[in-house]
Design the sequence.
C-alpha cells in the first residue's frame, strides 16, 4: 500500500531534493507539489533535473488539498511553516523542514528568529540521538533539524552523553555550500562573489542554529551545554564540514572517546565513523543521507576535535525528512535513501 504525500515549498532547494527522493521511493506516491508564487509552472522549469516529473505543474498551497494526503513535507522559510501546519488535520502526518517547531524556549525563539510568537514544539527529528528513534516512531508531527545542527549534534552527542567533554565553551567552526542559504536571490551568493573565496557570517553567537544545538545537546548531557559557533560560506553548491573542539574531562582518554562513537553509531546505517588516520570530506556525502565523522584527541591541549561532513540538502534537510517519514510510518528507515555519495 502506497502513502500519498505532498511537498509544500517544492520550488526551493530542499523542496526540489525532496521531489527527487520521493520520485524514487518504493512506498511514497508524490501526489502534490506546492509552490506559492511558482504555482502553474512546470516542475522541470525550476528543477530541470527532475525529468520524471516533466509533465507535472506546481500546485498552489491549498490546505484543503493537503488535508486529503497521508503525509506532508513542509519546506518553507523559517516563520512560515506554522500557518500551514496548524491548518492541517491531526490525521495527516507532517515533517517540517523549517525551524518553526524545533524549539521549546520562547525566549530563544525571539532571540534567534524574532517575529511572531513561537509555534508549539514538535518531536525533534534527529533519529540517531539517544532515544529519539522511538519518539519519532510514535509521533505524527516531527520537526526536522537544521543542517548545521545535524552535523554538530551528531559530532558531539556521543561525548556529552558519556561525560567525556566539558560542556561549556565548546567551539564549532563549520562551512556550508551556498544552497544552505536557500534559493532567494542575493548578491552575496552569486558566483562571482563566492567562487574562489570563503567568508564567515553571523559571527559572535548570532547564528540561529545555536539555539537548537544547545537545546538538544543539553538534553543528551542532562546538563547545560554552551557552544561558540562560527559559520563559513564555502565556494560549493552543497555540503557541510564542521570542526567541533571541546576540552576533555579529567578522566577521559582516547580509548573512551573511540568507544563512545562505536557504541552510539555502531548500528546506525547513516552514520560512518572513519578508521584512524582518515578525515571526512563533503564530497564523500554528496547526494546521500550519510554523516561521516572522525574524532581526534589533541594531547597537546587535552582537547578532542570531532570532524563531521554531511550533504546539507541530504542528511541536513530532505534526506533526513524522508528518513523521519519512514520511521513515522513504521518503514525501514533507509527506504528511498542512499548511504553512498556520488563524487566525483
Sequence:
Amino acid at each position: 500500500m502506497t502513502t500519498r504525500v505532498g511537498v509544500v515549498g517544492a520550488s526551493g532547494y530542499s523542496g526540489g531534493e525532496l521531489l527527487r527522493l520521493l520520485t524514487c521511493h518504493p512506498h511514497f506516491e508524490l501526489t502534490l507539489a506546492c509552490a506559492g508564487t511558482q504555482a502553474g509552472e512546470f516542475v522541470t522549469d525550476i528543477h530541470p533535473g527532475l525529468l520524471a516529473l516533466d509533465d507535472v505543474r506546481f500546485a498552489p498551497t491549498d490546505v484543503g488539498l493537503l488535508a486529503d494526503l497521508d503525509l506532508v513535507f513542509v519546506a518553507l522559510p523559517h516563520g512560515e511553516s506554522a500557518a500551514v501546519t496548524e491548518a492541517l488535520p491531526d490525521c495527516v502526518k507532517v515533517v517540517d523542514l523549517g525551524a518553526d517547531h524545533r524549539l521549546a524556549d520562547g525566549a530563544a525563539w525571539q532571540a534567534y528568529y524574532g517575529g511572531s510568537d513561537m509555534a508549539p514544539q514538535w518531536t525533534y527529528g534527529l533519529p540517531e540521538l539517544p532515544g529519539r528513534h522511538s519518539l519519532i516512531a510514535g509521533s505524527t508531527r516531527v520537526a526536522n533539524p537544521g543542517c548545521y545542527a545535524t552535523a554538530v549534534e551528531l559530532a558531539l552527542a556521543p561525548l556529552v552523553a558519556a561525560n567525556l567533554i566539558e560542556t561549556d565553551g565548546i567551539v564549532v567552526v563549520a562551512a556550508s555550500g551556498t544552497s544552505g542559504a536557500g534559493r532567494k536571490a542575493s548578491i552575496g551568493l552569486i558566483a562571482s562573489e563566492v567562487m574562489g573565496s570563503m567568508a564567515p557570517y553571523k559571527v559572535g553567537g548570532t547564528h540561529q542554529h545555536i539555539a537548537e544545538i544547545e537545546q538538544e545537546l543539553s538534553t543528551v548531557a542532562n546538563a547545560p551545554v554552551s557552544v561558540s559557533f562560527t559559520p563559513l560560506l564555502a565556494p560549493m553548491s552543497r555540503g557541510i564540514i564542521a570542526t567541533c573542539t571541546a576540552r576533555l574531562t579529567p578522566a577521559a582518554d582516547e580509548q573512551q572517546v573511540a568507544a563512545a562513537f562505536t557504541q552510539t553509531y555502531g548500528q546506525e546505517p547513516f552514520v560512518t565513523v572513519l578508521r584512524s588516520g582518515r578525515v571526512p570530506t563533503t564530497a564523500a556525502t554528496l547526494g546521500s543521507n550519510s554523516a561521516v565523522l572522525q574524532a581526534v584527541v589533541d594531547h597537546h591541549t587535552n582537547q578532542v576535535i570531532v570532524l563531521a561532513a554531511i550533504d546539507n540538502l541530504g542528511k541536513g534537510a530532505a534526506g533526513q525528512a524522508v528518513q523521519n517519514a519512514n520511521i513515522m510510518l513504521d518503514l525501514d528507515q533507509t527506504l528511498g535513501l542512499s548511504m553512498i555519495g556520488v563524487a566525483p
